[in-house]
TrEMBL record:
Keyword Phosphoprotein: no
CDD domains listed in its UniProt record: M14_Nna1
Residue span(s) of domain Peptidase M14: 661-950
Cofactor: Zn(2+)
Family per similarity comment: Belongs to the peptidase M14 family.
Residue ranges crossing the lipid bilayer per the database entry: none
GO cellular component: cytosol
Lineage, top ranks: Eukaryota, Metazoa, Chordata, Craniata, Vertebrata
Name of this chain's protein: tubulin-glutamate carboxypeptidase
Keywords: Carboxypeptidase, Cytoplasm, Hydrolase, Metal-binding, Metalloprotease, Protease, Zinc
Catalytic residues (positions): E914
Compositionally skewed regions (Acidic residues) per UniProt: 296-322, 986-1007
Record's catalysed reaction(s): C-terminal L-alpha-aminoacyl-L-glutamyl-L-glutamyl-[tubulin] + H2O = C-terminal L-alpha-aminoacyl-L-glutamyl-[tubulin] + L-glutamate; (L-glutamyl)(n+1)-gamma-L-glutamyl-L-glutamyl-[protein] + H2O = (L-glutamyl)(n)-gamma-L-glutamyl-L-glutamyl-[protein] + L-glutamate
EC number assigned by the record: 3.4.17.24
Length: 1031
């Protein structure tokens, strides 16, 4: 009481005593009295206390009490509460705190209180009151408050859903957004980006739960973040902030079903014995139901989804076969020898038939003795005349009853109109010289016979007219870095400003008649032709379209292949196209691949080329959700958008766009027909037979090529002793690259090239160039009409559901049964997520090594001849890359052609050869995309590589050695170290696991790397903290 003067009030005495006391009990008593005094009255009492030096007294007390260590919260808590009560009414409180020197003490207290949230809150309130003074706020900043605050925030970044929920319930998201907006607007120099980021991180974490997302949307968060992100500009320092904002927006974007009534294919096919053979990929749920479910049960972190996108089975050694009995070829026929006799007819070279000379004047022989088509052949007008412009339109309009119209393309009529009358006719004569092994007239004939589930009635112009590879090779586009975000922003803009969106359906394959736009500003789309795939086109903005692909027939999956016609464009304007229902988690479209386009205008000017087109090509996850039959719709995944921009050269052109260079079934039949016409029967023994009829009623051709024998007895013996090479292709219809490769093989084998001659002398080639004609015809990507992947049926193919596989296996079994097990079997495929051309084979030892099996491989014998062909191809085929090959046997692939032919038929050299849809990152074609010419070259070089197998027993001419010397250079040694072929787990064409693209090596700058952020956060060190620590 010494400091109290005579006229001091009781309050002043109390305050004076308080601030000079170091005794906890005394202090506590005075605090209680003060609290009671203030609780009873109104705000006036507080003001009065302030006027008597209350603030200063409390701050001094705070300093005194924080000097006690460890902190005594029994006194500190009431003190802090009183400070809050008073400080809120004192406008100069912050300033006073600074003058008295209480700031550091308060921060220290906060630091000590960090582990105990209940003590943290009052400290924060006090600091908040300090910060109402701008000067004090700055001082707090200098004293390192932000670092402390970040530490505080981090517990919320883990999965503390309770805390997050509290944050949502208390409306923090709204406040955070306001705060963020405030910082963004006032921090015009963007000097405090770590604060922007911190706020965004808070928002991001709160939006991990559904309620948080909802609150974010209600608070107009999308608009706030979008406009801020767009305003940030392109300064590199701001990119992390924009990225974070983008992640939040993408995460919060409401999930939607595709704008379709059902995702099931719009065409269906009634299977034989339909009742008991329902296709597998079937779910009765509509997307809407699934979304409702999701909203109900899902209260968990969306980042789960993001994590799941990481490659699941990279180096999935668990999948490797380690059972020795299954790792050794164990040939045994699964059919009776009697039954196999039916395949005798497919080996006419082994009977006396060949003496009639190789050529069969009646063209394709055979017929479908095995699977007589249940489809009655319709009576058709098979016009043998070249189509003329005038008649074409009329034909289309006179579709009546049972009659099938002339197979004249709608495109044909449109295309011709704009180019003057009869231009097409004149050019069609010109072009016969231009495109080798193609003829529009023959094509029309072949197309007449082709059966489709959708019963299309027009031809696509490029297939009709033919394609020639341009003379130049097209480079990989590199990465369109920086603009993916702009595309995503444009997508989000639709949600923020729905009024600007046209949302006009301009094409819909589901509605009959097909909707096509009639006005001038919209593009016109069309896909109702062979291999066509486009289900719906929606105009979004004046020059932007959303496109939806059709699922494979009898499924609701496999969206990848597209092929459609478009017209009505204006030259010089960039059109943006978004294919919004892609399924794969990544794509070579992110790494330099472009789709292909064919311009009718250009073709009629003598440039009939499919060329790579498109700029600003990106592939990213979108907000459309798909429900997966495999998960019974419980947790749906997202679709992906492939976006690209095309600026057309000519107005009112008719163009065709495709995923990859189309190659239809009718093209194949045309090609085979013309090959047969071109051959010299004295030199080439060529047979075109029908393996069987497909479910859809198309003939599956099987080709035999070898050298015609001479008449001498010795020559005949040599002929019969030739070894077999069996090649198949295009089991996956979307892999049109495989068809171009087999085209190269066929043409090379028929050619006068000395190597081809030697090959014919040495081998009998059995080629089934299209294992899945129905899939190709109907524009499927992966399946047959049964809705199944035919390359998973080889273990037990069913004659009624998988006839082409059943009979190909039958033919191979037959060859084995007569002691003619093929020397080589290869199935040609296409690969959408890797570059180059490479092979998969089967090796016992490499598989055991990779699986780190305890089996002693030293005692096991293995013929390493399986490496010969890929090693030779590595030297002679520019696109081929040995180091991408893999010879591991995976359990999940045991029903594929490669493994079954190796294991059951006993073919040591049994391969899958994969050709990229994209280009090469090694060798002569490094940096280039593959065109059809390069693909055909792959097919030719594959054959050349077979020569190596004849090295010992074959006396070759010196000329041949010099021509393809490399064939003979490579050695046959075992890989001397145990270095096993690099495997990324995807030992087959299209592995079930997600992508294997290496983001680092492919320099992907724009990927959504939430997972990395998440990892950093979970490890407890955020980037911000690191930055602050440096300061
Ligand atoms: Zn494939």
């Amino acid at each position: 009481m010494t400091s109290a003067s005579g006229n001091a009030t009781g309050l002043e005495i109390l305050l004076s005593t308080l601030q000079s006391s170091y005794d906890v009990q005394n202090t506590l008593s005075i605090l209680q009295i003060l609290d009671e005094l203030l609780s009873a009255g109104t705000v006036k009492r507080i003001r009065y206390m302030i006027s008597k030096g209350g603030s200063e007294a409390l701050l001094h007390t705070l300093i005194n009490m924080t000097r006690i260590f460890p902190p005594n919260y029994d006194v500190l808590l009431p003190l802090l509460h009183l400070i809050i009560k008073v400080g809120q009414r004192d406008k100069r409180f912050g300033q006073k705190a600074q003058e008295i020197g209480a700031i550091n003490e308060t921060l220290n207290l906060l630091k000590h209180s960090l582990p105990q949230p209940k003590y943290v809150t009052p400290c924060l309130w006090v600091l908040k009151i300090y910060a109402t003074s701008v000067v004090t706020g700055a001082a707090l900043g200098k004293s390192g408050i932000t670092r402390l605050l970040f530490k505080l925030i981090s517990p919320y970044t883990t999965r503390n859903t309770k805390a997050v929920r509290r944050a949502v319930d208390n409306g923090y998201i709204h406040r955070l957004l306001k705060l963020y907006q405030d910082w963004h607007q006032r921090d015009t120099q963007n000097r405090f980006t770590s604060i922007h980021k911190a706020l965004l991180n808070c928002i991001k974490n709160i939006t991990n739960i559904q309620a948080g997302k909802k609150a974010f949307l209600q608070a107009d968060g999308m608009r706030v973040l979008l406009s801020a992100s767009q305003a940030y500009g392109s300064s590199p320092g701001l990119q992390p902030v924009i990225k974070l904002a983008t992640q939040v927006m993408r995460k919060c974007h409401p999930k939607q079903p595709l704008p379709l009534l059902t995702v099931r294919s719009c065409y269906s096919f009634l299977l034989p014995n339909a009742a008991d053979s329902q296709p597998l990929a079937c779910s009765s749920m509509f997307p809407q139901d699934v979304i409702a479910m999701k909203e109900d049960d899902e209260e968990q972190d969306d980042e789960d989804n993001i994590e799941n996108e990481e490659p699941v089975c990279n180096e999935d050694d668990d999948d490797l076969e380690t059972d020795l009995t299954r790792l050794r070829p164990n040939p045994q026929l699964d059919r009776a020898v009697e039954e196999l006799k039916q395949y005798e007819r497919l080996c006419p070279e082994l009977t006396g038939y060949f003496q009639d000379s190789g050529r069969n004047p009646n063209g394709p022989s055979g017929g479908c003795i095995l699977n007589p088509s249940k489809h009655k052949t319709k009576k058709m007008h098979l016009s043998m005349q070249r189509p003329s412009v005038d008649s074409s339109k009329a034909c289309i309009q006179t579709v009546t009853g049972e009659e099938r119209p002339h197979f004249l393309s709608q495109s044909w009529s449109i295309d011709s109109e704009q180019n003057g009358q009869h231009a097409g006719y004149k050019l069609s004569q010109m072009r016969r010289e231009m495109v080798p092994f193609h003829d529009p007239h023959v094509y029309t004939m072949m197309a007449e016979k082709t059966r489709s589930a959708s019963d299309y009635k027009s031809l696509a112009f490029p297939d009709y007219w033919g394609h020639i590879s341009p003379v130049y090779q097209e480079p990989l586009t590199g990465q369109w870095s920086g603009h993916q975000r702009d595309k995503i922003f444009e997508d989000i803009q639709r949600l923020v400003s729905p009024g600007d969106i046209l949302n006009k359906v301009v094409f819909d394959a589901d509605s009959l008649p097909l909707v096509t736009s009639e006005d001038d500003i919209s593009l016109k789309f069309y896909s109702h032709f062979e291999s066509g795939n486009l289900r719906k086109a929606i105009q979004i903005r004046k020059y932007e379209y959303d496109l939806i692909m059709n699922a494979d027939i009898n499924t609701e999956l496999q969206h990848q292949w597209f092929y459609f016609k478009l017209s009505g464009m204006r030259a010089g304007i960039p059109y943006r196209f978004n294919i919004i229902n892609c399924e794969k988690t990544n794509s070579q479209f992110n790494y330099g691949m472009q789709p292909v386009m064919y311009s009718v205008h250009e073709a009629l000017c003598g440039r009939p080329h499919w060329i790579r087109v498109g700029s600003d090509i990106y592939y990213y996850k979108n907000h459309y959700c798909r429900y997966n039959a495999a998960t019974r719709g419980k947790k749906e995944a997202s679709y992906y958008t492939l976006t690209f921009t095309i600026t057309f050269l000519h107005s009112k052109d008719v163009c065709y766009l495709a995923y990859h260079y189309p190659y239809t079934y009718s093209t194949l039949m045309t090609h085979l027909h013309l090959l047969e016409e071109s051959l010299n029967p004295d030199q080439v023994y060529f047979r075109h037979q029908t393996l069987c009829s497909t479910l859809g009623g198309n003939r599956c051709p099987v080709i035999t090529i070898t050298a015609s024998p001479g008449a001498q007895c010795e020559q005949l013996r040599q002929f019969w002793n030739r070894q077999y090479v069996v090649l198949t292709a295009r089991v996956h219809p979307g892999e049109s690259n495989a068809s171009w490769v087999i085209k190269g093989t066929l043409e090379f084998l028929m050619s006068n090239d000395p190597i081809a001659r030697s090959l014919r002398d040495s081998y009998i080639f059995k080629i089934i160039p299209m294992l899945n004609p129905d899939g190709v015809v109907n524009g499927c990507h992966r399946c047959s009409l049964s809705g199944e992947d035919l390359n998973r049926q080889w273990s037990d193919p069913k004659p009624d559901l998988h006839p082409t596989i059943y009979h190909t296996k039958g033919l191979l079994s037959y060859l084995r049964s007569i002691g003619k097990t093929p020397l080589v079997y290869c199935d040609y495929h296409g690969h959408s997520r890797k570059k180059n051309v490479f092979m998969y084979g089967c090796s016992l030892k490499e598989t055991l090594w990779q699986a780190r099996s305890s089996i002693d491989t030293a005692t096991l014998k293995e013929d390493i001849g399986y490496r010969t062909i890929p090693k030779v191809l590595d030297k002679i085929s520019p696109a081929f890359a040995m180091n991408r090959c893999c010879f591991l046997v995976q359990k999940s692939r045991e029903a594929t052609a490669r493994v079954v032919v190796w294991r059951e038929i006993g073919v040591l050299r049994s391969y899958t050869m994969e050709s990229t849809y994209c280009g090469c990152d090694q060798g002569k074609y490094n940096g280039l995309q593959l065109g059809t010419q390069e693909l055909e070259e792959v097919g030719a070089k594959f054959c050349a590589g077979l020569l190596k197998l004849k090295k010992e027993e074959w006396s070759c001419s010196k000329q041949l050695i010099t021509e393809d010397g490399a064939v003979f250079d490579s050695d046959n040694e075992l890989p001397n170290d145990r270095r096993v072929t690099p495997s990324d787990g995807s030992v087959d064409d299209e592995p079930p696991c997600s992508e294997e693209i290496d983001y680092d090596t492919d320099n992907c700058t724009e990927e959504d790397d939430d997972s990395i952020d998440l990892a950093a956060e979970l490890s407890g060190t955020s980037e911000d903290e690191l930055e602050l620590d440096k300061n």
